[in-house]
Design a protein that fits this description.
The protein has 20 helices and 50 strands. It is α+β, with helices and mostly antiparallel strands and about 950 residues long. Strands 8, 9, 12, 13, 14, 15 and 28 form a seven-stranded mixed β-sheet that branches. It starts with 10 loop residues before the first strand and ends in a 14-residue tail after the last strand.
Length: about 950
């Protein structure tokens, strides 16, 4: 055992039992799995990815590259969990990974002997011959070797939540900088969210013996946290990682609500995904200590010096009895004194010749480490002088890398600072300030002052007045550093997890991969689960040296979210299973249910498919009755699910001209025009209507299936392709209940629910207007037809939908559902879902004349590709014949039923009660030339083989007289 008898934040009165690789151990509440393993003398915890070299614990937090383990079992099994962040709980079962058959004896460690053959980029140069081996030998071997842990194969039994929050100031990080920033902002009355990935607020102050206001700094932490917790406008989020900075002040975060428990308590989510919209942000994420690349620097027992200090002070764990501290700056000396005070025998190897001696510590100044020894753990280190020092712990202090990732998530590039030997934030996202160690201010007094100033400015910029925080008293500890990145020699590791060495980076430079992005991908530097948090700066420094450039000239790679791995569950929240997509019901859903409707899922919507009446023996009886009623009298249908989008602004007409293939800017207020949109590749995206309500206001309708897609299309066209246009786009699908009223008696029925003049002169075909309904309710009236009959669409507020339906029913109209709607549209030859399948052009659908030749629009150029205007393309036709079924293939009579003879397929089919026969729509090659001929209809899936007559796609009223009556 290496547990120190006193001190630390652990609760010694609460022992916790756990297992690692089947061996039983004991820790305490407040431990992480890493600290508990070290307390039990466990140094070997994993194997590296490529060479399967033994690995021990390096760090203290989320920067850990080595100690990745599998936790739990069954549906809760989670791979690649950092032992340094996994809180210990009773019964925790952890397993090492990426080894076989055991951690101590891993057969794949033979890869280390093949190192010269597995150097950087070997996968680009091997597995090429013989080609027949790829599928049978190479690919299976690569797939077997890929990955580290094993994902769960059983369903996840836990629940996840999504939360949205708005605040004035978001503070990321709860070390001294973050606490000072949050307190300064909160005292102005600002709404503050303070998030930190640790389960204890205070950051590195728990790992130090520093004073604030003449008392231990941890006392100040306790006071500040208590004050913040008592403020109603402050939200404290421990165990919460802010993983991404997105547009318009939006930040993504994951809160580990129950990861520290064996399983969540009843009704508790395991994790909660946060979307935080902040007016201002203070990034106070601190810094991560980096290693030094020297031969043998990856053995178990080689640790970050700052992490060693943390295990001693926070967890009361002494990671080694005979310790060597290898440092290039003053910070390593604080670890040396912590080790000395904990009872270790300590030698300090300081790369600086002028390093001062300290009592109780042996000093070797101006020296370098050139190697280590040990089997499955450190036993000694070698100096460049030839001296060998026995050691079971090597604490390495190579300097600090500011944790600036969030500041670069929107394209900002970090800037190299030679004096601090670190990359500092460049241009952060709008509204973000970077403070403390994340900004390169590594001393306590500087962090407190910087945090307090940043928090106060953020609150003031968010609209809150107050006075600056009275700064607590603290001293700036020595922080001198001589940059040291690399000591030449074999097996000097840079990326511990991916086994990238200094030689690999030099090889990449020799082979022409001089760009940091190219070198990263060639060597896989920084592509492990830690995303190069400890490795990248070392790699860049080595690449700079190898290419004869400075680090500033070499630059750095792009930073992208997420900052740390995020579970799919946290992103999905409660949207799983039946809740993956919320069921959407129209304002008439309950009314329809009361009137005998059966419902069908139409995308996310539930729509009435028919309304059964007593005495009807099946759905066909109901549908036939509804269709005949519309053709002979009047019927009404709930079409609230159609996409409804308002496009408003002085440039609204210009945007619509750009997204529609036909012209909308010439449309007069009060008029409607049918339109089609193309994708950029020239195929039809969607069809619908566009009503001009005013000079600067348009009402766009879409098909139900494409509502979201069209909204995305409009947003993309505006934000990316035409950002200079002054226009606002808003989805109003759920703001209006929409009812279609159709049939020869539609005008007569409409006159009973509105006071507006609806005669043919006052409201002609394809006109729209505002109107009063139900005795004073303001709504909108559109005269347009989907069925081919005289028809209107009525838009009213959702809460008035049932009253309107009651009045229409009392006036003599009958409700009809989606099945009757489909029959009516097939009879009229109107393209629908089967024809708008993403593979048809305007010409295929008989709408080619709608493509404007006088303006530019999305898809115009690519719509003229030879293959898209080929006369032999399948085009829309009608079919008459028994046994027609959607999806059946079309062949020339007598042709063999093989793919080479396929001429098209049936896109929609139905029984027409008006024509008393089965009809359908189809896409048929050279279809217009085949009108009047016979075609073979072959349906192997459902066992039908027959013939049908090819006819024009419009079966009823081809002249369109009914809709204009």
């Amino acid at each position: 055992m290496t547990r120190i008898a006193t001190g630390g934040l652990i609760d010694r009165a609460q022992p916790l039992r756990f297992t690692f690789d089947g061996h039983a151990y004991q820790g305490h509440a407040g431990d992480t799995l890493a600290s508990a393993l070290l307390a039990n003398g466990v140094r070997l915890v994993g194997r590296s990815f490529k060479y399967h070299r033994p690995r021990g614990i390096w760090g203290l937090g989320s920067e850990e590259p080595n100690a990745l383990v599998e936790l739990r079992s069954g549906g809760r099994q989670e791979p690649n969990t950092r032992a340094t962040t996994a809180e210990l709980f009773e019964g925790l079962a952890a397993r090492s990974q990426n080894r076989w058959p055991s951690l101590r004896f891993d057969v794949m460690a033979v890869n280390g002997l093949l190192g010269p053959l597995l150097s950087a980029g070997f996968y680009y140069k091997t597995f090429m011959w013989p080609s027949s081996f790829w599928e049978k030998v190479y690919e299976p071997l690569i797939r077997r070797a890929a990955g580290l842990g094993r994902a769960a194969t059983a369903p996840d039994p836990d629940r996840y939540e999504s939360m949205h929050a708005h605040c004035d100031v978001l503070v990321v990080g709860a070390g001294p900088t973050g606490l000072a920033a949050a307190l300064a902002a909160a005292r102005t009355g600002a709404r503050v969210i303070l998030a930190d990935e640790d389960f204890v607020l205070g950051g590195r102050l728990w790992a130090e013996r520093q004073e604030i206001d003449g008392a231990p700094a941890t006392n100040w932490v306790a006071r500040v946290v208590a004050e913040l917790a008592g403020m109603p406008e402050v939200t404290l989020l421990p165990r919460t990682t802010v993983f991404g900075a997105f547009d318009q002040g939006t930040y993504g975060a994951v809160q580990r609500v129950a990861d520290h428990l064996p399983e969540p308590v009843a009704d508790q989510p395991r994790q909660r995904g946060w979307t935080i919209v902040a007016k201002r942000v203070v990034l106070a994420a601190g810094a991560v200590e980096r290693p030094i690349a020297f031969p043998g620097n990856d053995r178990p027992g080689v640790m970050s010096a700052a992490a060693v200090r943390g295990y001693i002070r926070r967890y009361a764990v002494l990671p080694g009895r005979r310790a060597v501290v290898f440092t290039a700056g003053d910070d390593g000396w604080r670890t040396a004194t912590a080790l000395r005070d904990a009872g270790a025998e300590v030698t300090v190897v300081d790369a600086r010749a002028e390093a001062p001696a300290m009592p109780g510590l042996r000093l070797v100044a101006g020296a370098r480490l050139v190697g280590t020894r040990g089997f499955l753990g450190l036993s000694s280190v070698q100096l460049d002088s030839g001296e060998t020092i026995a050691a079971d712990l090597l604490a390495v202090a190579g300097g600090w890398n500011p944790t600036l990732h969030l500041s670069a998530h929107q394209g900002g590039r970090p800037v190299w600072d030679e004096a601090r030997a670190a990359f500092l934030p460049g241009t952060p996202p709008p509204g973000m300030a970077v403070a403390g160690a994340a900004a390169g201010r590594f001393t306590l007094a500087a962090c407190l002052a910087d945090g307090a100033a940043a928090g106060f400015r953020a609150a003031r910029d968010a609209g809150h007045d107050g006075r600056p925080l009275d700064l607590p008293r603290a001293e700036d500890e020595p922080a001198g550093l001589r940059a040291l990145f690399h000591i030449p020699g074999r097996k000097a590791f840079v990326d511990f997890q991916h086994d990238v060495t200094a030689d690999d980076i030099a090889l990449a430079a020799r082979e022409g991969f001089r760009s940091v992005e190219h070198a990263k991908r060639y060597t896989t530097l920084g592509m492990a689960t830690d995303q190069g948090r400890t490795a990248n700066v070392l790699g860049l420094a080595i690449l700079a040296e190898a290419t004869g450039r400075t680090i500033a000239e070499t630059g750095t790679t792009m930073f992208r979210p997420p900052y740390t791995p995020v579970t799919i569950g946290a992103l999905a929240g409660a949207q799983t299973g039946r809740d993956f997509r919320p069921v959407r019901r129209t304002p008439l859903h309950a009314w329809s249910a009361r009137h005998g409707a059966s419902f069908v899922d139409s995308g996310a919507w539930q729509r009435a498919e028919w309304y059964a009446r007593p005495g009807e023996t099946g759905w066909r009886d109901s549908v036939d009755r509804e269709v005949l009623q519309v053709r002979s009298a009047a019927g009404f249908c709930d079409v609230s699910t159609l996409g409804k989008i308002e496009v408003v602004g002085p440039d609204a007409a210009s945007l619509l001209d750009f997204v529609y293939a036909n012209t909308m800017s010439t449309l007069q207020p009060g008029r409607i025009r049918y339109g089609i949109m193309l994708r950029e590749d020239g195929f039809v995206l969607d069809d619908g209507t566009c009503a001009r309500l005013a000079e600067d206001r348009f009402f766009v309708t879409t098909t139900t299936a494409n509502a979201a897609r069209v909204m995305q299309h409009l947003d993309y066209a505006h934000q990316v392709l035409r950002p200079e246009l002054e226009v606002t786009i808003l989805s109003v699908t759920e703001a209006w209940a929409q009812i279609a009223l159709a049939g020869p008696r539609a005008r007569e029925v409409l006159a009973q629910v509105t006071s507006a003049d609806v005669c043919n002169t006052a409201l002609p075909h394809m006109a729209c207007r505002e109107a009063d309904f139900l005795g004073g309710l303001r709504g909108r009236l559109y005269r347009l037809s989907f069925s081919g009959e005289l028809a209107y669409e009525i838009g009213v507020p959702p809460d008035a939908a049932e009253a309107l339906a009651d009045r229409l029913l009392a006036a003599g109209a009958v409700p009809y559902g989606t099945e009757a709607l489909g029959v009516l549209r097939i009879e009229k030859g109107h393209p629908g879902g089967g024809e708008l399948n993403g593979q048809t052009t305007a010409g295929d659908l008989g709408l080619g004349r709608m493509l404007s030749t006088k303006k530019d629009f999305i898809g115009r150029a690519l719509a003229q590709r030879p293959a898209l205007v080929d006369p032999a393309r399948p085009v829309l036709v009608g079919l008459r014949g028994a046994g027609l079924r959607t999806g059946a293939h079309l062949l020339a009579p007598g042709a063999t039923a093989v793919t080479a003879n396929d001429l098209g397929h049936v896109t929609a089919a139905c029984w027409s009660p008006n024509l008393r026969q089965t009809i359908g729509l189809a896409l048929l090659a050279e279809g217009r030339a085949r009108i009047g001929t016979r075609i073979r209809v072959f349906d192997a899936l459902r066992g039908h083989d027959g013939e049908a007559e090819v006819v024009a796609p419009v079966f009823i009223d081809p002249e369109g007289a009914r809709s204009r009556a």
